């Protein structure tokens, strides 16, 4: 097996490359480096600089590297930006996927793992989100992921490609400081940034209908998430060998809700910056009160289970942050 991993120079993609190659799988990475970083990909893994919109490049790559499966992570992923630039998001996330799937079908590739998101559910009004919970995305980003899933499943059925759509919940942590997320768009790095500047972290609203009034999320360690990709890819390969043609749509979360206040307090404790108490500000528009996965189906289908807790996510993410921001440690207080 040789897997094409698109977006393999990104934060999550690089962890998928790491998990798959450490498990003995062959990989080739395609990344346009718009947000990815070349040095996240190990030197021994072939790297191709380019876009999934480039059909001739894809055809060449699949042929020359003997690609048998694809793990597709390359995408734009900022909710707010997607509201401002829907055309760009549909082009990159939906058209980029459509062109890739054409190349997959014409190139005889038989396995396809698609990076989806809990954003497809929008504002779920349930204790635990199952894969049957209605999908009502609230942003163009979420829409592109849902439309992507539809396309992946339809192509899988029509052309005999085994497919899996993995719906990520809130991803955090790092396997190695060098692979850490560099964006400051999510709760954990946003709190790190405030603490580094010796300013109070912000909590966006504490009047939600949740136990402590702050939003509840299901955080998943990126290393566990990467292992889920490996398990999905292997499951699809086995299925193809036995003539099955599965389309597995799976939540990737831990099934455990953690509130924003709990996260901020734990970050303060782990980083030693607990003296900086958080400030509560207005709600951020579009935030659902609670999004927590039911992780039953993925454990049944893939035998996968998360191994890392929130403490491990924050500790590893902080090590990655301090590598890029040495002043974060020096200014602790
Ligand atoms: N938050 C704060 N203060 C901050 C930053 C965030 O209170 O400084 C809160 C947010 O309001 C939210 C929670 O922390 O309640 C988590 O926010 P994130 O931005 O980390 O994550 P989201 O749950 O909003 O978004 C995540 C993914 C998106 C995905 C979305 C829906 O990052 O890609 O889940 O599944 F679209």
TrEMBL record:
Enzyme class at the top of the EC tree: isomerase
GO molecular function: UDP-glucose 4-epimerase activity
Annotated metabolic or biological route of this protein: Carbohydrate metabolism; galactose metabolism
Keyword Cell cycle: no
Listed PANTHER family: UDP-ARABINOSE 4-EPIMERASE 1 (PTHR43725:SF53), UDP-GLUCOSE 4-EPIMERASE (PTHR43725)
Family according to the record: Belongs to the NAD(P)-dependent epimerase/dehydratase family.
Protein name (record): UDP-glucose 4-epimerase
């Amino acid at each position: 097996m040789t897997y094409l991993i698109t977006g393999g120079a990104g934060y999550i993609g690089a962890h998928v490359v790491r998990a798959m190659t450490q498990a003995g799988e062959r990989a080739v990475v395609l990344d346009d480096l718009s947000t990815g970083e070349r040095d996240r990909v190990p030197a021994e893994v072939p790297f191709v600089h380019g876009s999934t919109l480039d059909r001739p490049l894809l055809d060449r790559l699949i042929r020359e590297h003997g690609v048998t499966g694809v793990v597709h992570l390359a995408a734009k992923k900022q909710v707010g930006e997607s509201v401002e630039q829907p055309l760009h998001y549909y082009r990159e996330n939906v058209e980029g996927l459509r062109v890739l799937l054409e190349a997959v079908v014409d190139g005889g590739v038989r396995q396809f793992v698609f990076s989806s998101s809990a954003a497809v559910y929008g504002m779920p009004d349930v204790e635990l989100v199952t894969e049957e919970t209605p999908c009502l995305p609230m942003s163009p980003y979420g829409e592109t992921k849902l439309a992507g899933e539809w396309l992946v499943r339809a192509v899988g059925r029509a052309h005999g490609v085994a497919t899996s759509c993995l719906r990520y919940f809130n991803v955090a942590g790092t396997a190695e400081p060098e692979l850490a997320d560099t964006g400051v768009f999510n709760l954990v790095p946003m709190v790190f940034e405030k603490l580094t500047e010796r300013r109070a972290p912000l909590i966006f609203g504490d009047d939600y209908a949740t136990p402590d009034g702050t939003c509840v999320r299901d955080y998943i360690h990126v290393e566990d998430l990467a292992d889920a990709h490996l398990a999905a890819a292997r499951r699809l390969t086995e299925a193809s060998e036995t003539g099955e043609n599965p389309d597995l749509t799976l939540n990737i979360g831990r099934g455990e809700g953690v509130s924003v206040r709990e996260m901020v307090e734990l970050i303060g404790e782990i980083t030693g910056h607990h003296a900086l108490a958080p400030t509560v500000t207005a709600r951020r528009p579009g935030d659902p009160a609670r999004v927590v996965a039911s992780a039953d189906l993925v454990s049944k289908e893939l035998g996968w289970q998360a191994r890392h807790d929130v403490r491990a996510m924050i500790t590893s993410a902080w090590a990655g942050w301090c590598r890029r921001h040495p002043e974060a440690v020096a200014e602790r207080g």
